[in-house]
Amino acid sequence: MKQQNPSTFTILLVDDKTENLVSLEHMLEADNRRFLTATSGNEALKIALRHNDIGLIMLDVQMPDMDGYEVARLLQSNPKTKDIAIIFVTAINKEEQYVMRGFEEGAVDYLSKPLDINITRAKVSVFEKLYFYQHELKDAMAEKEKVNKQLERFMYVVAHDLKSPLSGAIGLLALISEDERIQSAPDLKEYMQIVLGATNHLTEMITSMLEYTRHSDMEQTIEDVDVHELVAQLSRLLFPPAHIQIITEGKLPLLHTNKLKLQQVFQNLISNAIKYNDKKDGVITISGADKGEYYEFYVKDNGPGVAKRDTDRIFKLFERADNTGKGEGDGIGLNIFKLLVEEQGGKVWVDSKPGEGSIFYFLWRQQ
């Protein structure tokens, strides 16, 4: 079940004087805030361990038995409490040595007594916003991981179901290619060799997909990949219609990367450019440029283009542009493309003019 983002900001107030706790709580009261209080360091540690929703601790430095520095050090050393934000509240003079000690023990901010109401409220509001932003980010990351797992499972099922019938088709094609009528006709023999080469390559891709879904990212093979040759091979094996020309401008690089992932990225982009091209003479251009840590690739076409309102939407799962003119798209390919690129720290974007074509860009990390 998806965990809901919290709607309440819980603050633990720690001070050995009850009147200070009452005053601080009154100062920070708000509809979406909940307060927990402790009058000693030991009590504060027990409360922090019992509650996993504390977003901020307002911690007095000068307390008997265990001072605020020791409390902060113990909170930082415990995995359950190490990420809780701490603001030290102190009447100690503001000499640098005391301030630095507080930060070394894990404080993220400092407030000096007597407290200024406006400054105190402003600082707490900042930490409240950060707390909710962090939870939204965690939720988004969890949702992305869930989608990744679903796509990997989908990929595994499709690849597994395709492998057996494809193996049978390859066997049958191999038998047909040995027929005397095929062997005696040079054109037919050449066509059969092309088909057998394509089906064998497809089998290798499916095997790689199955391997990809069985292993974690750390276990996947990183190898030297000649991107120029990879794109040239894909351009042949995708069998573009006679009216569509695929051009590679310049020399594409040699990268040390995951070959299967980069192959999937180019296959999705080139396949889409072929499928949706609506021009009498279609042209697909592939090129790129070295940007240091990343290599910037692009796939350009002269197809129907994408309306400005769709340039972000098309990268979402099961979303398609409205002006493709074809209804067979499933809205998965560009989402997989985006996930694969972002998975290794890159980003994707598109420049497009309806009726004139699109340029799909992506940054791919150079290992």
UniProtKB/TrEMBL annotation:
GO molecular function, one term: histidine phosphotransfer kinase activity
Catalytic activity: ATP + protein L-histidine = ADP + protein N-phospho-L-histidine
Gene3D superfamilies linked: 1.10.287.130, 3.40.50.2300, Histidine kinase-like ATPase, C-terminal domain
Domain Histidine kinase: 157-367
Signal peptide: none
Ribonucleoprotein in keyword set: no
GO CC, alphabetical: plasma membrane
Superkingdom as given in the UniProt entry: Bacteria
EC number(s) reported in the record: 2.7.13.3
Matching InterPro entries: CheY-like_superfamily, HATPase_C_sf, HATPase_dom, His_kinase_dom, HisK_dim/P_dom, HisK_dim/P_sf, Sig_transdc_His_kin-like_C, Sig_transdc_resp-reg_receiver
Keyword terms, alphabetized: Kinase, Phosphoprotein, Transferase
TM region(s), chain numbering: none
SMART domains: HATPase_c, HisKA, REC
Modified residues annotated as 4-aspartylphosphate in this record: 60
Residue ranges annotated for the Response regulatory domain, each copy included: 10-128
PANTHER family in the record: OSMOSENSING HISTIDINE PROTEIN KINASE SLN1, TWO-COMPONENT HISTIDINE PROTEIN KINASE
Name the UniProt record assigns to this protein: histidine kinase
Native source organism of the sequence: Chitinophaga niastensis
